Amino acid sequence: MNINVGLLPRYYDAWNLDDGRVGAPKDPIPQFMHMNLDKSLDRPMPSFEGGRGTVMYHRGLDPSAFYTTWSYVDHLALPPGTSAGPAIKPDMAEIYYVISGEGTATIDGETAQIRAGDAVPAALNESRSFAATGQGALEFMIIGIAKDFESKKAYMLSKENRERMSSR
């Protein structure tokens, strides 16, 4: 998956390679941003964001990886019967991409069934919670985008970010 992020056209967060990479030799050291969402990197997180049970989590990309207000990309797996949230984030919008599993998403009081391939946006100040209701884990890639640069800076210096960084 290639996600380009930028403030100006043709200027992207560490991905501006100026070539299509078609037919290009493989670089011995990749010249682009890389993250690993492998489940083996996950760490147990009890009562994640106020949820029930112990979920598995790790930070794939931290705030320093982005020149924009994009702030993180995380991996989250909710085993059957567990949940995350509800949480309200006044300065952080998030997109939850469902990698695998089935469950429910509740955004600002509205609940919907979700499954692999779905994307769930949660805007600033919206309450968000998720529950795994299927036979297997409900697995997400989460993208966090700060309201503005001051909010991103505050998040980078926060205890929450330091704790999330230690789960890498």
Quickly give the structural class.
Answer: mainly beta
Described by the principal axes of the CA atoms, the overall outline is globular
CATH class: Mainly Beta
Helix and strand run: EEEEEEEEEEHH
The CATH topology:
Jelly Rolls
- CATH superfamily grouping: Jelly Rolls
Residue-averaged pLDDT, rounded?
Answer: 88
Helix count from the secondary structure assignment: 2
Instruction: Give the percentage of residues in beta strands.
Output: 35-45%
Instruction: Name the poorly predicted regions.
Output: none
CATH architecture: Sandwich
Q: Got a strand count?
A: 10
- Counted up, domains total 1
Describe the structure.
This protein has a 6-stranded antiparallel beta sheet. Strands 4-9-6-7 form a 4-stranded antiparallel beta sheet, with no helix packed on it. By secondary structure, it is mainly β. The chain has one domain: Jelly Rolls (Sandwich). The longest helix has 8 residues, at 149-156. The protein is 9% helix and 40% strand. Strand 1 (43-46) and strand 2 form a beta hairpin. It starts with 42 loop residues before the first strand and ends with a helix.
Could you provide a short overview of the structure?
This protein is mainly β and 168 residues long. The chain has one domain (39-165): Sandwich (Jelly Rolls), CATH 2.60.120.10. It has two helices and ten strands; from the N terminus they run ββββββββββαα.
